[in-house]
């Protein structure tokens, strides 16, 4: 059985992109996370020590996403996935969606981005 912890709408200002102004000025990105784990123990114990702290997930995600400037969202999301799987042994897999609502595209659109899933055991 796999249960899910999620964080949606995490806004982070970062300097990812191919264009020079993206790396100079930066822009807002929005991240959604789905963390797959077994929540049977904390659902009975009611102890934070038996689960994964949302606050720690957000801090880990923010640091991994902001600490390095990447050209591609795929690489930035991969850095987040690596950090989460490294820091949280209870997490079996993670699904990350990175939205880039202000991407420099000559079109009218609501959103663009990427979604990736990584697991401990591919």
UniProtKB/TrEMBL annotation:
Pfam family, one: FolB
Presence of keyword Transferase: no
GO BP: folic acid biosynthetic process; tetrahydrofolate biosynthetic process
GO molecular function: dihydroneopterin aldolase activity
Occurrences of domain Dihydroneopterin aldolase/epimerase (ranges): 5-118
Catalytic activity: 7,8-dihydroneopterin = 6-hydroxymethyl-7,8-dihydropterin + glycolaldehyde
Top enzyme category: lyase
PANTHER family for this protein: DIHYDRONEOPTERIN ALDOLASE 1-RELATED (PTHR42844)
Family label: Belongs to the DHNA family.
Coiled coil start-end: none
Name assigned to this protein: 7,8-dihydroneopterin aldolase
Function: Catalyzes the conversion of 7,8-dihydroneopterin to 6-hydroxymethyl-7,8-dihydropterin.
Species in which this protein is naturally found: Bradyrhizobium betae
This enzyme's EC code(s): 4.1.2.25
Keywords: Folate biosynthesis, Lyase
